[in-house]
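Q&A FORM
Asked by: J.P.
Topic: structure of Outer-membrane lipoprotein LolB

PROVIDED:
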Amino acid sequence: MMINAADCLTTTAHRWLIAWLRTVLLGLLVIGLTGGCAGLRPATVPTDPESEAVLAQLKHANSGLSQFKCVGRLTVKTPHQPAQSFRAAVAGQIPDRLRIDLFSPFGGSSATLASNGEHLFVVQHASQEYRKKTLGQGSLRRIVGLDVSVVELLELMVGRLPLEAGCAARRSSIGTDSGSQLDLIDRRGRVRQRITLDTDSQPRQSVWFDTGGKPVYTLVVSGWQVVDGFALPRQLELSKETGQRVTVGLERYVANAPMADGLFTLAPPPF
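REPLIED BY: S.T.
REPLY: Here is the structure written out as tokens.
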């Protein structure tokens, strides 16, 4: 069988094209495996020993304080509704046991909220309404309008600031007499929490950000008090950008107060 010159040229060109494509694809594969995924790997944030020391101090603040009792005022404000304010008796035990008795303006208990670490209880004393549910994540959103958990509220009330996990710390000065600022930065270089510290390195404010850099929650600490050697906030105000706000004032604080066994479990009211 006769093969003409044009057929030979076509066959040779076809083989050369296949070999070239294989070379290009192999090169792209090597690039993708060695360097092409660098953009997908989380960025590393340089660590600063001084900033990390401040972060460790915040994490372990009042580590010897495990339970407390106090009297205070709880104020809840939601958009388009007037603020509701109650005197309250509060008892807490780290990590997730909490009881808040709200007093009515005319005396007596208006409602009681409690968590025993397994269940969340709510009792409305006037109507004798009783609710009990599995604690789960412990969110108090339906009660106070903010997605704050029992664990986080207790941490705040023992003088420890909830901190964004898995972040590196970077501290900067905001003035000789104004304290400093501590940014918690995730592995992609995004600021997830910004803490303003006073000259004694006590938190004055904390702002939490979403992954897009938008502020979500803001905490303002107004004043500090020392009780049995523990530095504790006088007032906490937690707010959301959408307008919800919860203010907790702490008075007559008793650190490591004794607790009754059944304090954090609420039985249904008698009928």
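FOLLOW-UP: The CA atoms of residues 10 and 245 lie 77 Å apart.
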